[in-house]
Specification:
Strand order of the largest sheet of chain B: 3-4-14-9-10-13
Low-confidence stretches of chain A: none
Shape of chain B: globular
Strand order of the largest sheet of chain A: 5-4-3-2-1-9-8-7-6
Helix content of chain A: 40-55%
Number of helices of chain B: 16
Helix content of chain B: 40-55%
Structural class of chain A: alpha/beta
Mean pLDDT of chain A: 94
Largest interface: A-B, 41 and 36 residues
Radius of gyration of chain A: 17 Å
Radius of gyration of chain B: 19 Å
Number of strands of chain A: 9
Oligomer: heterodimer
Shape of chain A: globular
């Protein structure tokens, strides 16, 4: 069984953290992953930086631009991660945009992910129909879960379609927004969280976009199985560097227990 | 071979809709509605009337006598430069603002590079009383001050794109992000024949008024609807798409797409996507684009701000790959000389984008009885500063 599915069977609310590979410094990738696991994070999304990240706000875009300036490439990321499973056990997901993967070769990319021990991919601009027409077989061959996004505007009919095609979990985008642009949740979001919970989907849901602190983490995980923090963590790295990772995680986990 | 879009939104292997889920409801709604709306007689009547009374169509098909003598062939200019706002861009913005109204949208966003599409969008928003936000790279805002002022006079808010390379591709990213953040009330008027399906097809159809008019105008002047060649410059490719559209399946018509070679194809400062680009995904579609080996999108260069886009519309990628169109790359210098020559011989100062199309006359020899239609996509007023600097006027 895939590590993601295993993790989701544990009786707890998952804390998942996103960071951009190659940021703040090119070779911080492994240290960040190890420190996150050590401090109690349940799952990690490793951002493969892209020059034109359409679904991301200024924080993640700036970190991606810096990572590319630092020299990060797909090949370097794979090289950094090649021994990661000797020290890290939690699920690892690569999150990125489709073009760099398309250039690497989709099958070669998936094969490499399997060798390393990557459990899934989140590719916001690889839509459901293209995935099903062309890539589903390849992803499955290499044991990779393709995580789909849903938003408050996604119709129930389409959510059911996505649920049927999904493996691992469904990534619930908290509100109509790019990453890093929210300040807490209001009634509209809570109603949306409830509406999705009431659909009793086969895949668990994890909420992302707009989770920045203990309070929003708690709100999001009232109905969902977990939550993903991205921009707020990247901001923390920008302000405090890689040595202060425990401070950030402790603040969230204090509430989680 | 079919050169039009298929039911899945592809031109051959190019096109499609590679969009994040956040954009799906809007793009899907547009896909379901656009052909129905465009076929509605009240829509057609309103579109035609605005093109006639507001834009000033039909634009003349002008026989360029002195230019023809110079090159010993028969050259006609399609005068899109005479449209209101000075370029072909307005054909599309009129169509899309009417579309937006019928889709119940109240807020318009657009991207712009040189500012021509931004001005054309701000214009139709003023005309319809709609809120208008134009995203423009911070660097382009500094380079194109008169167009920024025009947009402001027309009531638009110009928002600087501060991310990435701070030019057209980043303005497009920002506009897409705005649409993600405002999914209910907003319509995104894309200015070129790019983006997720149905945008390339929709923009092409609105611009196809150009080739539709060429057909009947040429029939009046030459007694035949089909020229031997149609020529247009290609950045993203909206004026070219409109110029080629009704000739795509007319085998006897040669199609020539002119790209900006910038300082030269091998100089690292170029925008000749067909030569330098590889298949990939940009701004929601699969097409040819300039990128690193690692799939990062690179910054193109051309003296013409309207041609320095790192991709090309999926229809053009298909025309290139299938061999239906001949792609010719023209340097800054060749384009500037062609612009000067047109000014001297015909009394018409072209936009530098259009100057690229005219430069083909130097590199390709046409027969004396060939009928060559060149799309004069815009006028040169906006480029006066560049002409002054280049020729030390």
């Amino acid at each position: 069984m895939n590590r993601i599915n295993q993790k989701l069977q544990e009786d707890k609310k998952l804390l998942s953290i996103y960071f951009t590979a190659g940021y703040p410094a090119l070779n911080d990738t492994v240290k960040i992953i190890q420190d996150l696991e050590k401090n109690g994070v349940d799952m990690i999304e490793i951002g493969l930086p892209f020059s034109d990240p359409l679904a991301d706000g200024p924080t993640i875009q700036a970190s991606s631009t810096q990572a590319l300036t630092n020299g990060m490439t797909t090949a370097i990321l794979f090289e950094q991660l090649k021994n990661i499973r000797k020290s890290v056990r939690i699920p690892l997901i690569i999150m990125g945009y489709f073009n760099p993967i398309f250039q690497y070769g989709v099958e070669a990319f998936c094969k490499k992910c399997q060798e390393i021990g990557i459990d899934g991919l989140i590719l916001p601009d690889l839509p459901l129909d293209v995935y099903q027409d062309q890539y589903e077989d390849i992803f499955k061959k290499y044991g990779l879960a393709h995580i789909f996004l849903i938003t408050p505007q996604t119709s129930d009919e389409r959510i059911l379609k996505i649920d049927a095609a999904s493996d691992g979990f469904i990534y619930m985008v908290s509100s109509a927004s790019v990453t890093g642009s929210q300040d807490g949740f209001g009634n509209t979001q809570e109603q949306y969280f409830q509406r999705i919970a009431d659909m009793h989907l086969k895949n668990p849901q994890i909420i992302g976009f707009g989770i920045s602190n203990a309070e929003t983490f708690q709100q999001a995980t009232k109905t969902a199985s977990g939550a993903i923090i991205g921009s707020a963590f990247v901001k923390h790295l920008t302000n405090h560097g890689v040595e202060k990772i425990p401070d950030f995680i402790e603040g969230i986990l204090a509430v989680k227990q | 071979m079919n050169y039009n879009v298929d039911e899945k939104g592809y031109y051959g292997e190019f096109g499609g809709a590679f969009i994040p889920e956040m954009l799906y409801p809007n793009v899907e709604n547009l896909r379901q509605q656009y052909l129905k709306v465009m076929a509605d007689p009240t829509f057609i009547a309103e579109f035609d009337q605005l093109l006639k009374d507001y834009v000033g169509r039909p634009s003349p098909l002008y026989f360029a006598k002195r230019l023809s003598e110079r090159y010993n062939t028969k050259i006609y200019l399609k005068r899109e430069d005479l449209n209101h706002t000075g370029a072909h861009k307005v054909n599309n913005t009129i169509g899309q603002i009417l579309m937006a109204k019928r889709l119940g949208k109240t807020r318009i966003i657009a991207e712009t590079g040189a500012g021509q599409h931004g001005v054309a969008t701000a214009t139709v928003c003023a005309l319809m009383g709609m809120a208008c936000i134009v995203y423009m790279g911070e660097i382009d805002i500094a380079r194109q001050a008169p167009n920024v002022a025009r947009m402001k006079m027309l009531g638009a808010e110009v928002r600087p794109a501060l991310s990435g390379s701070r030019t057209l591709k980043d303005a497009t990213n920002e506009a897409i992000r705005d649409w993600i953040n405002n999914p209910v009330d907003t319509h995104y008027i894309i200015g070129s024949a790019i983006g997720p399906h149905p945008y390339p097809d929709m923009v092409t159809r609105f611009q196809s008024i150009i080739s539709e008019e060429i057909k009947w105008q040429l029939k009046e002047k030459e007694g035949k609807e089909n020229p031997d060649y149609v020529v247009a410059c290609v950045g993203g490719g909206s004026n070219a798409a409109g110029t080629f559209y009704h000739f795509l399946h007319e085998k006897e018509v040669g199609i020539i797409a002119v790209e900006a070679a910038g300082k030269g194809i091998d100089t690292g400062e170029s925008a000749a996507t067909s030569v330098l680009g590889k298949e990939g995904i940009i701004h929601g579609c699969k097409t040819l684009l300039m990128q690193t080996q690692d799939g990062q999108i690179t910054e193109p260069y051309s003296i013409s701000a309207g041609l320095d886009y790192p991709g090309v519309g999926p229809m053009h990628a298909h025309l290139y790959k299938s061999g239906r169109a001949e792609f010719i790359a023209v340097t800054d210098d060749q384009a500037m000389q062609a612009g000067m020559q047109l000014s001297k011989l015909e009394g018409i100062i072209p936009a530098i984008e259009s100057s690229h199309a005219f430069a083909v006359l130097e590199t390709k020899t046409f027969k004396p009885d060939d009928v060559v239609v060149i799309n004069l996509s815009g006028r040169g007023d906006k480029d006066l500063g560049t002409y002054i600097d280049y020729f030390k006027l």
